[in-house]
Amino acid sequence: MNLEQAVLSAILAASGLLFLGRFLRIVVAVRKGIREVWWDRLGTRVASVILDGLLQRKIYRERSAGVLHAFIFWAFVFLFFGVVEIVGEGYIEGFRLPVGPLDGPLYLGQDLAAALGIVGVIMAIYRRTVSKPKRLMHEGNRAAVVMLLFILTILVSFLLLNAARILEDAAASTAEWRPVSRGIAAAASAAGWGGVAASLEGSMWWLHVVALFTFMAWFPYTKHSHIIFAAFNVFFRKPEPAGAMRPVPVERADTPGAGSVRDLTWVSLLNAFACTECGRCTDNCPAHASGASMDPMHMMMRLRAAVLARGGEARTVTRAADGGAPEAEDLFHAVHSPDAVWSCMTCLACVDGCPVFNNHLSKILEMRRALVARGEVDPGVQGALESISRYGNSFKGTPKARTKWIRSLPGPVKDARKEPVDTLWFVGDYASYDSRCQALTARTASVFARAGVDFGILHDGEWNSGNDVRRVGEEGLFESLRDRNAEAMKTCTFKDVVTTDPHTYNTLKNEYPPPNGGRVLHYTELLDELIRTGKLQLSKKLSQRVTYHDPCYLGRYNGVYDAPRRVLAATGAELVEMPRSRWKSLCCGAGGGRIWTEGVPDESKRPAYVRVKEAAGLEGVATLVVACPKDYVMFTDAVKTAGLEGSLQIRDIIELVEEAL
Predict the structure, then answer these.
(1) What pairs with residue 548 in β-bridges?
(2) Per the CB 3.0–4.6 Å rule, which of 108, 276, 287, 655 could disulfide with 294?
(3) Mind listing the pLDDT tens digit for each residue in 468-488?
(4) 320 to each of 32, 315, 323, 332, 337, how far by Cα in Å?
């Protein structure tokens, strides 16, 4: 072994040891999490790795960021083979991988990928140093720029190395497959620098190797650890519906939720190391935008530090005042405060926007469970829970008052407990008790009747569905509500279940036992079906421009976007999409029990206020259409607060359908 080979070996060994040491430390720390099943639905998991990990389809939602990331990612994929050959040359002169006739196309791919990678890196550096989007301006930005400079050095040195070899005829046989390197060589020769450039071949080789292995040694210590862990994160993520919360394990019934790092599953801990620190989660978070301390990205960054601290990386570990878990492990000390946890609106925008499928929300909900177990509950939430526990609803209304809205109808509504029906209508609390929503509920019943729907309700046998109860952390009360409603539904004979409330729709569909083998439908889905089958004839065409708000629990949670739009189209109304529509829809601010709290102090930052301002800013639009009782309540109040009573009206989609009959 000569001196150069000894130096190369030392570089490889040092880089490998630093990389492997950090990698193993992370793996050991993550494995301390609670065990979780990961081997189910292997086909789904593998397909997701290909589509979401390798092809990265989610990252292209933001075109410019997606393109630059794709350029960098595929540059690394193609250059992997070139790197193996370059390092191999350090030990065996002229070393080449035995790829046979594929060597030419491989060299072409490497050359083009390196050039595009350089473009991607320059775009990324520009974003972080010149355009400076707010979500990237955090404490990890400087390290990210340094890592990008290393990547740029690796890619540029690769092309310069090949150009130098073309100039000295060492790579003449492959020159035709390297158009970019050949172009650089031609430019250098034309400028009279051909001899100098050719003499730099050795320097470029060493620059490439040193930059590459310095990068390899350092990146696991930065947010670039996602290069390794993102694909694993995609594979191990929960394949269940987004709207299904995991039950509290029986063995943890006395200590539910997560108050410490040790209470999280190992997949939840893995999330922290897959985080790319792109800021999409925080950028999409309505709680953060409203001025709350909630910050999903920094939650992941702090969780990463807490996981490593538990693994022994922290310099000092201070015990909590009560002598319990170390402060470095306590989630409310090290990751997010109780106030931030309660500010979450459970809109799923953070999870839906994450390109590596991190689940911020699951951790927040587990922390809420821990807070409820400790008795640390928001006063408004506590009052609603007490009312639901006693009366079955958050309005302190008697069970008999649940059907007050029926009084405005010409006839009674069937009691599904006493006679069979085709459709069981689970009405929901706000549709039943809120005075502003009761008229809408009666209109829905009238439209169903006009369409010949054979429907019935549970009358005073219906209690709160428990969706929001579960998401504020009261698992015991949720289970009681679910069991009570499920028992009441078992006594009924029906085919399908329908509800007007997306929150109720979500929990009935994803967290209740299957309803007699039938479907769970949102009323917009049923209306769409009735219109398309001709059972509901809309004879009038509404000549008005409207916009539509996608409810979080209908859209992001359950993917129902088209049915409401088809219903609106059938009425003849012209739909003008909101600036943030479909999966980008801005939460109204009611979810996760937030409708029971005092809300955001600054009215102008409340999500509902911002949303009605968006709607009012659309040209020729005077109507914001909703498909959720809570949206109706939130936006009706926001219109008054924003002073838009004379220019914007809030209407339920059922009103337009009824008007078009």
Answers:
(1) 625
(2) 287
(3) 999 999 999 999 999 999 999
(4) 20, 16, 5, 11, 15
